[in-house]
Structures are given as C-alpha cells and as structure tokens.
Amino acid sequence: MHEFNSSTLVVQRLQENGTIEEEKLGGPYMMRSVSFYVAGVLYVFSCKNFYALNLDTEGAFARQLDVPIPTSGSLQQVAFTLGGLCYLVCQCLDSTGVQPRKSEMWVFDPEREGKGWTQLGIPVPNLCCDDLGLPVIGDRAYALSKGRYVSFNKADGWRGSGGV
C-alpha cells in the first residue's frame, strides 16, 4: 500500500545573532496548502491544519487555529486574499466520490480570528484553476470557468459573461 507523502511548509527566519531558525508546518494529512498574507501574518491552510504565523514578531512560532471547513473529499481548493479577507473555494466530490458537486465558498476575517471560517451562501462557478491562487486586480479576483472568465468581489459576488 502506498503511503501518502505529506507536503510541509518550511519557514526560515534570520535571527539577530546570525543564525537561521527553522519552523516546519504540516502533518501526515497535509495536502496541497494554500496561504494568505494579511497585515504581517502568514495564514497557511491545508486539509487538516490551519496556522497563523506572525512574520513581524522575531522568534514567533505558528499558532494552530481551528479548521471548521469540511475538506474531506475536496477535489480542488482555490484561494485568494481580497480587501483584507481570505477566501477559499472548495469543489467537493459527490457521495460516490467520483463526480464533482457544487462548489462552496468560505471567508476568513483575520481581524475576527476567533470567529473562524464562515461559509458564504452564494452561487460559485466551477473554477478551472488547479489549486492555484487567483489573481487579484483592484477589488476583484479573476478566474476561468468553462472557457470564459469570471470575477469576484465582495459587493457583487461572482460575475461573468452568461452568468455564473
């Protein structure tokens, strides 16, 4: 039986004494991770883990945060940061584990960290992004969906030619 080889995010910091301090984030269930950088804090989200690492504080280590998002069976995770908020789109598999079902979108507000991730009850297109972060220009994030481009902003939700 093939054992899953986890990926690990390694954060290295140069200390005042000239040494390099290294911290490894990850675990046996860490799949492709997505990261967000907001106000000096690096947020790293993966299948079973969510970390916050303050890059402005020397010697600070990552704090593990709750992961309330049901990521089991997640086929694709697409992330972007917009307006100081972290967004995650998860396209999950249906109950057979074969066909993708409707995508779900979640938002995380770093200023209200204790609230955690909140699911947005809005229509979400199936994105053709293969686990990459979305480009953000101005106040919109852009992606491809079924051969056309779509865009998202907080006020309008997802928009594209022919609807979402």
Number of domains: 1
The secondary-structure element order is EEEEEEEEEEEEEE
Task: Name the CATH class.
Answer: Mainly Beta
Fraction in helix:
under 10%
* Strand residue content: over 45%
**Morphology call:** elongated
Please tell me how large the radius of gyration is: 17 Å
| CATH architecture title | 6 Propeller
Distance between the termini: 41 Å
CATH topology: Neuraminidase
Number of H- or I-type helical stretches: 0
InterPro entries: Gal_Oxase/kelch_b-propeller (IPR011043)
Search tags:
164 residues, mainly beta, Neuraminidase, four-stranded antiparallel beta sheet, 14 strands, 0% helix, disordered N terminus
What does this structure look like?
This protein is mainly β and 164 residues long. It has a single domain, classed as Kelch-type beta propeller (Neuraminidase, 6 Propeller), CATH 2.120.10.80. It is built from no helices and 14 strands. It has a 4-stranded antiparallel beta sheet with strand order 3-4-5-6, with no helix packed on it. A 4-stranded antiparallel beta sheet has the order 7-8-9-10, with no helix packed on it. A hairpin with a 5-residue loop joins strand 1 and strand 2. The protein starts with 7 loop residues before the first strand and ends with a strand. InterPro entries: Gal_Oxase/kelch_b-propeller (IPR011043).
